[in-house]
Design brief:
Helix content is about 45%, strand content about 5%. With about 150 residues, it is mostly helical. Helix 1 packs across helix 5 (about 105-115).
Length: about 150
Amino acid sequence: MWQVQTLSIRSAWEMASLPPSRIHVLVHGLQDWRPHEWRKALGGAWDLFGGLHWCGGYNRYPVLNPRLMKHRMTDNYWNKVFVMVKLLTVRRYKYVVSLDDDVMLQPSTLAAFISSGPRADSVGCGVVVPLTQNGIPSVELWAEAWLDDSAKQ
């Protein structure tokens, strides 16, 4: 399904509607390690590709949340979150957009979503999410693990 996302990314890039960005693909299985397929799918937008990152197995960054790591050392979801935090830190990114491969956005919506960081920041909004419903409480899980009670309000 990730190929559909690359069509939107490529179209948004071709329309020059994306802000300066990098795409980092986070995978947890060998079947997903496909750098050549990403290059082909992105075509001229390949310059956006920031890397393919392994997130399977044991979490490499347990220091980011030791309490959580006592119970979730091999949790794929949290491994990906921790890799994103590390990428933000090492690459000095100010904003991050995270989309699963089953979230499909048309190019203009994708570009607006990727561009939303500065605008959201200016009004004190810390998280912008696409309005989708799949029944998975990922936002609630993230807030429970990372935010203190006052920030959850």
